[in-house]
Design goal:
2 copies of one chain form a homodimer.
Chain A: H1 2-26, E1 31-32, H2 34-41, H3 45-54, E2 65-66, H4 67-77, E3 84-89, H5 93-104, E4 109-116, E5 125-126, E6 129-133, H6 137-143, E7 146-151, H7 155-168, E8 172-175, E9 181-184, E10 188-191, H8 194-206, H9 208-211, E11 220-223
Parallel strand pairs in A: 3-4, 3-7, 4-6, 7-8, 8-10
Antiparallel strand pairs in A: 1-2, 5-6
Helix pairs in contact in A: 1-4, 2-3, 6-7
Chain lengths: 227, 227
């Protein structure tokens, strides 16, 4: 359990480093030190060195890292050197928005299919991607070698959909439905709850100290990615 | 620091309880026990009692909670009994999708304005909501009493946008840009990083044990909301 947790926090940081390196490469730099990376992107240089050392020795003392080599290494570590097919279940407002978003994101995931139960939606397309009948889920997952499922159905349907996904053999799932889900532990499930995130801001705004416009002495802190 | 962390995890759970109670109310139930809530929604009944006791005594021994009263209490605790104006900065693919999503979500936030720097977008509308010039940000925030800002700009623009938000007096921010941001500690910043979430699934798929279709003995576990 502890190893899994460390690994996820670490890989999330590696994801961030990779995007920082992409920016640095776009600016034309060929080498970079952990100190420069840290300064430029508000990261911790000791943490960078520790994270990268965990996966092998990339840096050269006094020179830093070769940007291109480090990017290639990080892509390989993160599994971003391979393309994966992704499907989205639920072709409603959120599912459609996510299709559009992921279709144009520079990731190694391609949206291969959408699924819905509504006869009026089945057979139509969203941005060139077909909406299939949820009844044909297992068949299409197998045929199209889909490895990742995104749950974008209403809360009350999410558990049933997760069971369908599990039965199909898919091991990686991203859930946007705002409910806790039961999952078998050979499945990797990420939950992104847009409603709860907003409600936590609502709670913050409801506290007396935050509504009156007075600000306490603002100590700048760095807010790192939480997911 | 520690109090803040506990409070956020607790309020996230309260958010989940509230949605569960909404479902129960829709089914016509007037009272509910922590055991029934736990069983029906895969929650922990002791945790429910502890969380609710933290905010006062709601339950009646042997009867449970009155659904309507508990919902009202939770809404008040979470600040969901008041409407808030929200604005989205960045009218690109993600900003547009979020506008559409939040416009129809049953939350107490209303999307009041979009902002962009692109002259071709300024003055047009997304789902009836006007896109304003980012130069007029402070003025419109003040006029429309906007309390929450959602950052949906590319990574390299996010820090500058956050500084604009901070200067306007807004205290609650949701960031969808996949970069760490520096923030003064009187501001509540939530980061939702859709790219990093996907990349962590990619890492999982790249591990030898997960690609071969063999499944280990599946022990069911409950995956709670992480945000």
């Amino acid at each position: 359990m502890k190893v899994e947790k460390i690994s996820e926090l670490t890989t999330n940081r590696l994801s961030v480093y990779l995007r920082c390196l992409n920016e640095i490469a776009a600016e034309g730099a060929r080498t970079v030190s952990s100190e420069l990376l840290a300064r430029k992107f508000h990261l911790n240089s000791a943490q960078i060195r520790k994270d990268l050392a965990y996966f092998g020795e990339f840096g050269v003392r006094g020179v830093g890292y070769t940007v291109e080599d480090l990017r290639d290494h990080l892509k390989k570590i993160l599994g971003l050197d391979k393309q994966h097919q992704l499907c989205i279940i639920g072709a409603g407002r959120l599912g459609t928005a996510l299709t559009d978003y992921y279709r144009f994101s520079q990731t190694n995931f391609a949206v291969g299919a959408l699924f819905d139960a509504d006869p009026e939606k089945i057979g139509t397309k969203v941005g060139g991607i077909e909406i299939f009948d949820i009844k044909d889920f297992a068949e299409i997952v197998k045929k199209d070698k889909i490895e990742v499922a995104v749950i974008a159905v209403p809360a009350e349907r999410a558990q049933a959909v997760l069971e369908l996904i599990t039965a199909s053999g898919i091991k990686a799932v991203m859930n946007f439905a705002p409910v806790p889900l039961r999952v078998s532990d050979d499945i990797k499930l990420k939950t992104v709850d847009l409603t709860t995130s907003l409600e936590s801001l609502s709670y913050f705004l409801a506290q007396p100290k935050n509504g009156n416009g007075k600000s306490v002495k603002p100590n700048v802190k760095v807010h790192r990615n939480q997911m």
